[in-house]
Design a protein that fits this description.
6 strands, alpha+beta, 135 residues, 6-stranded antiparallel β-sheet, Mago nashi protein
C-alpha cells in the first residue's frame, strides 16, 4: 500500500514537470499615431486587444486562434523591407502623422516609424484584421 502511494506520487510529479516544460510565448504589439487633434492607437497585451480610434475605444479578448493568426501575420512582416517613410518636414507642419509600431515576441523586439496615412500594405492588412476582431 505504501509503495503504491509512492508510485502515484512519483507519477504525479513527473506528469506535472512535463507540463511545465512547454514553451511559453510572450507576445505584445503596440502602435500609436498621434498629432495635436488625432490619435490612433492599437495595443495587444496577453490576450487583450484595444483599439483607440480618435477617442472611440474598442476592446476584445482574443482567443487562441486569433492570437495565432496575429502572431503569424506579425512574423511574416519583413521589417528589413519596411523602412521609415516619414518626412521630418511633413511632420513639422502636420502633413504627416508619425506612427510608431512595436512588436515583442519572446526576446525579439521590432520597432519602426512610418507615415500613418501612407502605411505599408502589410501593416494595413494587419490593422484591418485587428479592426475585424473588435467589431
Amino acid at each position: 500500500m505504501k509503495s503504491l502511494l509512492h508510485l502515484m506520487l512519483v507519477f504525479i510529479t513527473i506528469s506535472s514537470s512535463c507540463q511545465n516544460q512547454e514553451t511559453i510565448k510572450q507576445f505584445s504589439l503596440s502602435y500609436k499615431a498621434q498629432t495635436r487633434g488625432f490619435i490612433y492607437k492599437i495595443n495587444i497585451h496577453k490576450d487583450t486587444l484595444e483599439i483607440n480610434n480618435n477617442g472611440i475605444i474598442k476592446n476584445s479578448v482574443l482567443n487562441n486562434q486569433q492570437l495565432s493568426e496575429i502572431e503569424k501575420l506579425v512574423s511574416n512582416l519583413n521589417f528589413d523591407e519596411i523602412k521609415s517613410n516619414i518626412s521630418i518636414a511633413d511632420l513639422a507642419v502636420d502633413k504627416a502623422i508619425e506612427g510608431v509600431f512595436t512588436t515583442y515576441i519572446n526576446d525579439n523586439e521590432q520597432l519602426i516609424k512610418i507615415d500613418h496615412n501612407n502605411r505599408p500594405i502589410q501593416l494595413s492588412e494587419l490593422f484591418n484584421k485587428l479592426e475585424e476582431y473588435v467589431e
